[in-house]
Amino acid sequence: QVQLVESGGGLVQAGGSLRLSCAASGRTFSTYAMAWFRQTPEKETALEREFVAGISYNGRVIKYSDSVRGRFTISRDNTKNTVTLQMNSLKPEDTAVYYCAAGRTPANTGVYDWDYWGQGTQVTVSL
Predict the structure, then answer these.
(1) Based on the number of CB atoms within 10 Å of its own CB, is 94 exposed (0-12), middle (13-18) or buried (19 or more)?
(2) Pair 98, 9: CB distance under 8 Å
């Protein structure tokens, strides 16, 4: 079992930055790939969450969605059981609830491919 808790969301102006963190419990964190997904208000179900970024258990494999590549950076610290999403050059269309997830393959972009989820943190980007 892995429990995930996100933090760092908030309100920011377009062009600004935010840093999201996900703290994981459990001694097996370092064996899981980690990812960030997001869900916008018009997406009513968890199945419609959008993959944002994924990182392998050892940090060597990273995947980004086309919409955030070059602006967002995912990283992890296995000594602290944390995964971070640095978000720069934010746009209003980045507004969403951001979720941390744990699974086995960092490049899997489907919601079904991820085993554990946090409760989410709201990110709002204003004009």
Answers:
(1) buried
(2) yes
Chain center to CA of 113: 14
pLDDT digits (tens, 9 = 90+) for 32-69: 999 999 999 898 888 899 999 999 999 999 999 999 99
In contact, 33 and 101? CB cutoff 8 Å: no
* Structure tokens given for 100: 């941390």
What is the pLDDT of the chain when averaged over all its residues? 95
* Mean pLDDT of the region 80-84: 97
Q: Which residues of 95-113 are buried (b: 16+ CB within 10 A; e: fewer)?
A: bbbbbbbbbeebebbebeb
List all residues 6 or more positions away from 76 whose beta carbon is below 8 Å from its beta carbon.
34, 55, 59, 82, 83, 84
Give the span between the Cα atoms of 127 and 20, in whole angstroms: 20
